[in-house]
Design brief:
2,3-Dihydroxybiphenyl 1,2-Dioxygenase, domain 1, 8 strands
């Protein structure tokens, strides 16, 4: 299977402030803001170049959830690398069989109309990796 860098997720404490910073840095604003209730986050997406890769700002909604725990422990910064796959279920099986530890047994709903699965950082050299698949309509 082929994986393509889809986005880099950045955990932020203040979404509006971080959006303004990236707008000034990149010279363009966010093209999409979305709340994902199941993940307890609000996300904001920016295009990051001509190859289609994106930057995703991820802010906690409320005081619970994995992003808030991440921010409490590590503070703002790069949270994960996300790779687009054609068939997330098949890719999850391949990765599991290759010795990677998956953080969930089935794909879950993610931002930007994606199904997602995360790989445990202890099996990916300390980097949280997300695999994602665009939902078929």
């Amino acid at each position: 299977m082929c994986m393509t860098l889809e986005h880099i997720g950045i955990a932020v404490a203040d979404l509006a402030q971080s959006e303004e910073l990236l707008k000034r840095l990149l010279g363009r604003g966010s093209y999409k803001r979305e709340t994902v209730a199941t993940q307890h986050v609000t996300t904001s997406f920016f295009t990051a170049g001509g190859n289609g890769a994106k930057l995703e700002l991820v802010a906690a909604e409320g005081q619970t959830g994995p992003i808030q725990k991440y921010l409490d422990k590590r503070g703002p910064g790069i949270h994960h690398l996300a790779f687009e796959v054609e068939d997330i279920v098949a890719e999850m099986q391949r990765l599991r069989e290759d010795g990677f530890e998956l953080l969930q047994e089935v794909p879950t709903e993610g931002a930007d109309n994606k199904l997602v699965c995360f790989l445990h950082p202890k099996s990916t050299n300390g980097v949280l990796v997300e695999i994602c698949q665009s939902r078929r309509t």
